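seq:
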Amino acid sequence: MSRAFVKEPEGDQAETDLPVRPQSKHPNYITMKGLEKQKKHLHELVLECSALKTSNTLADKNRIKLLNADITYLKQRVESAIPVKVEEQEGENIRFGATINLVEKNNTQYKFTIVGEDEADAENGLISWVSPLATALIGKQAGDVIVWARPLGALELEIEEFNYNS
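struct:
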């Protein structure tokens, strides 16, 4: 097919619009701390985008496109947020916001906190409420044994204790 009449982008034009980031199909539960952090991040992105608007460099134009995509995504996440006041959670069963201490048969200790999808950070012990581990934990009590279905193989863990203080 001939490309004679197709307008090619010139070297000084920004890249085309980025695809819209997909939103999760799950309810957007989030801790109050996580929501505040998300709002702060959104504000920082808006400020950075505003500061770049006067620039005419290609790199800045491309950065603005990236920022706008992130801003759109974060606005939607903030608007759809269902904040959970962790300090008001109580009961004998594990729920959203719980910090759980687990122990393996060989006495290896684990500590996780169940948080919203946007707050999850496995390296820091923050797991999404829809993750396989959180799904196995929600509704359980101290003393229960769960099976953590991991890519490395299933792991049996006992729930030592949990709280909502973190």
